[in-house]
Amino acid sequence: MDGALYASINGLARYSDRSNDFFEFFANYGLYLLIVLLVAIWFWPGSRTQRNVRQWAVINATAAASIALGINQVIIRIWDRPRPFMEHPAIMLLTPSRDPSFPSDHATFAFGVAVALVLALRRVGIAALLLAALISFARVYTGEHYVSDVIGGAFIATMVAYVIHWSRPYVEPVIEPPLRLARRLHLA
User: Fold this and answer.
1) For the residues 124-128, what does the mean pLDDT come to?
2) What are phi and psi of 52, to 5 degrees?
3) What DSSP state is assigned to residue 143?
4) DSSP letter string over the chain?
5) Exposure of 21 by Cβ count < 10 A (0-12 exposed, 13-18 middle, 19+ buried)?
6) In sequence order, what are the residues at sequence separation of 6 or more whose Cβ sits closer than 8 angstroms to the Cβ of residue 24?
């Protein structure tokens, strides 16, 4: 079933160069848009209370994405799943990657950031979730991943984002002193 779903989504690439360019952009550069969003949230002006909420959202998003990507590295060493284009006919729109397919690092990063933002900043987080879904779909559309690869990455990232969110009271005493220093140096 995963192969058939992959073939039907990747098969859409044969119909429109404009769509291909759109999905290639998000498959390649969507993560950079999320990074720009995090930087903008970090430095966005406002009251100290508003900035504190936003900066903790960025800290949580960064931690969630980083830890989830670390979990991915453990998984790919246990299960070396070949990329779908190695086992199925595919329309390749990107330079083929040779690292294991499951879970998708792009989906993991995108959903780690997005879910952490939803938990702290609902409206911005929903926009980030839509971007994460678009990035994940684009990774299948361009031939790089199975649907289960991006769902697996999204699941791992979501679980980690929730754990990070719930653990803030335990982590805050460690993070707050360097954050205060960053504020004094006008870095936060």
Assistant:
1) 97
2) -60, -45
3) T
4) -HHHHHHHHHGGGGS-HHHHHHHHHHHHHHHHHHHHHHHHHHH----HHHHHHHHHHHHHHHHHHHHHHHHHHHHHHH--PPPGGGTS-----SPPP-S--SS-HHHHHHHHHHHHHHHH-HHHHHHHHHHHHHHHHHHHHTTS--HHHHHHHHHHHHHHHHHHHHTHHHHHHHHHHHHHHHHHTT--
5) exposed
6) 93, 94, 138, 142
Overall pTM surpassing 0.90 (yes/no) = yes
Where does the pLDDT of residue 135 fall: very low under 50, low under 70, confident under 90, or very high at 90 and above? very high
* CATH code at position 175: 1.20.144.10
Count of structural domains, the chain: 1
Q: Which domain holds residue 7?
A: 2-184
Average pLDDT over residues 151-165: 97
Mean per-residue pLDDT of the chain: 93
Q: What is the pLDDT of residues 55-88, one digit of tens each?
A: 999 999 999 999 999 999 999 999 889 999 888 8
Taking the C-alpha atoms of residue 9 and residue 2, their distance in angstroms, rounded to an integer, is 11
Percent of the chain with pLDDT over 90: 70
